[in-house]
Structures are given as structure tokens and as C-alpha cells.
């Protein structure tokens, strides 16, 4: 049944090409409202996108914190760079703990049951003040078909790109298909409903495919799995944790360039159809 659901999502017809283009967010004014979104850097192993849902909790994709062989990425290798743009971040914080769902396997291509589990939380070693980046809330998708995505990706990894409007192609069995302009490195990027006063995260990018210039990407409904992951954190049932002696408290503002992570062993799992 779930395999059929994914096939139905893949078969969704393309909508009219009325999606917006990408806006590169470079200045503090550009970033206003998007400060909670940042680059998730894995030392020696690529990058993903993540977003704050609490002052010390970053939401991203599970395959960003679990290697394809099933081995958790050492939390000590991961840092979160909020609002990174051309070497300058609003804040950079090391990750203290990661948690992913039981039963998640980092597969490519991923079956639908794994797409639904491709969610992780990263607890930061120190909270990022809300005066710098006010966290997003997590919600269920609305009834409309317009969403927005903010992400880093291959070829545009040094600054956030914002697609103001893209489309939901289908929803079924807790999975969501969108035609947003995302690619490798966009894993964990928040899919946002902007119909209210402030944008809410209704999904995150997990995987997808590109065909003839069209992108179909897949995410999942979030509230239930996010609450389960928070409960695992509270219970200490973590995927990876930095030893107490190695934790580095404090929030560092970045003022220099460099340190770009360009490996490709993490990032959205895009395949050819």
C-alpha cells in the first residue's frame, strides 16, 4: 500500500509553471524572518539544511545524521550555522546530541516507509537567543497547495535561497510531494506554509528526482514524529552524543569566510526516474 502511495505521488502531473524563482538571501535585511534556517555542516562529510524549532533544537533530515551504512554521524562533527551567507553566520553552535527514529535506514533510493521516518533533531550545545533567531513552529499542512522553501544546495551552498512560491503536487499516507527548486544539499530544508502571520514548517525535504528541468521532491508530515523525537531526547535515547568533556558551550558569531564543506556524502537523495 505504501509503495503504491509513492507511485501515486510520482505520477502527479506537473502544475502550470507559475512557481517563483529563487531569491539569494545575502544581507541582514534579506534574512529577516529566515534567521532560524541554517547550514548543517558535517566535518569532512558535506552539508544539509536545518531550521530551529526551539532555541536549542534544530530540525533536519535523519539521513544527514546517519551514514548510509547505518552508523550514526558523530555529533561532535556537526555544527549549525544559522543564517550563513558568504562566510558570515548570525551564530554558529556545535551539536551536542542527535536523535533519529528507530528503524530509520539511510537508503538511496528510499522506500516510502523510510521517507516518512527521515526526520532528525539536533540538540545544540548552547541555545541561540531568540533575539538572533526566533524558532519556527511545526504544523500540519494546510488545505492550500502553495508552499515556500528556504535551503542551501549544491551550487548555492554559501547563502540561503528562498523560493517564495512552489506547489504541493500530492499528499498521501503522511507523505508530501512538492515541485520546489531543491537539489543535493537541500536535505532537511523546511517546507513552509506562509498563509498565517508567520511561516510554519509543515514538512522537510528528504529526497526527490529531476526530469527535464522539473523537480519532484518528497517530505513527510511532521507533528507526530517530531513529538516522538522530543520524547526520546528527554529520555536520553539519543542517536549520538558528545562526551561531556568535549562539549563546547557558547554561541560563536562567524566573521570570516572559508570552511566551506563541499563533500557529497550527505545531502538530499536525488535520483533519476
From TrEMBL:
A single GO BP: proteolysis
Record bears the keyword Lipoprotein: no
GO molecular function (one): serine-type endopeptidase activity
Superkingdom: Bacteria
InterPro entries: Glutamyl_endopeptidase, Peptidase_S1_PA, Peptidase_S1_PA_chymotrypsin, Peptidase_S1A, TRYPSIN_HIS
Region (Disordered): 254-273
Keywords: Hydrolase, Protease, Signal
Cleaved signal peptide residues: 1-16
Name of the protein this chain belongs to: Trypsin-like serine protease
Native organism taxonomy: Bacteria, Pseudomonadati, Pseudomonadota, Alphaproteobacteria, Rhodobacterales
Amino acid at each position: 500500500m505504501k509503495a503504491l502511495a509513492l507511485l501515486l505521488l510520482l505520477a502527479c502531473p506537473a502544475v502550470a509553471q507559475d512557481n517563483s524563482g529563487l531569491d539569494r538571501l545575502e544581507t541582514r535585511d534579506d534574512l529577516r524572518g529566515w534567521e532560524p534556517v541554517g547550514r548543517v555542516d558535517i566535518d569532512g562529510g558535506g552539508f544539509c539544511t536545518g531550521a530551529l524549532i526551539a532555541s536549542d533544537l534544530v530540525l533536519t533530515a535523519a539521513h544527514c545524521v546517519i551514514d548510509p551504512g547505518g552508523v550514526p554521524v558523530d555529533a561532535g562533527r556537526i555544527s549549525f550555522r544559522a543564517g550563513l551567507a558568504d562566510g558570515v553566520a548570525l551564530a554558529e553552535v556545535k551539536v551536542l546530541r542527535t536523535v533519529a527514529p528507530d528503524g530509520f535506514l539511510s537508503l538511496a533510493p528510499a522506500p516510502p516507509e523510510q521517507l516518512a521516518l527521515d526526520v532528525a533533531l539536533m540538540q545544540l550545545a548552547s541555545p541561540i537567543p531568540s533575539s538572533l533567531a526566533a524558532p519556527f513552529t511545526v504544523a500540519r499542512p494546510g488545505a492550500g497547495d502553495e508552499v515556500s522553501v528556504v535551503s542551501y544546495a549544491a551550487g548555492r551552498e554559501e547563502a540561503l535561497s528562498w523560493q517564495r512560491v512552489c506547489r504541493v503536487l500530492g499528499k498521501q499516507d503522511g507523505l508530501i510531494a512538492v515541485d520546489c527548486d531543491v537539489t543535493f544539499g537541500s536535505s532537511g530544508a523546511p517546507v513552509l506554509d506562509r498563509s498565517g502571520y508567520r511561516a510554519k514548517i509543515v514538512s522537510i525535504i528528504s529526497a526527490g528526482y529531476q526530469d527535464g528541468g522539473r523537480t519532484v521532491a518528497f517530505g513527510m508530515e511532521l507533528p507526530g514524529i517530531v513529538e516522538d523525537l522530543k520524547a526520546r531526547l528527554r529520555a536520553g535515547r539519543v542517536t549520538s552524543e558528545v562526551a561531556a568533556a568535549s562539549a563546547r558551550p557558547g554561541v560563536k558569531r562567524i566573521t570570516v569566510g572559508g570552511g566551506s564543506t563541499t563533500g557529497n556524502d550527505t545531502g538530499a537523495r536525488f535520483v533519476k526516474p
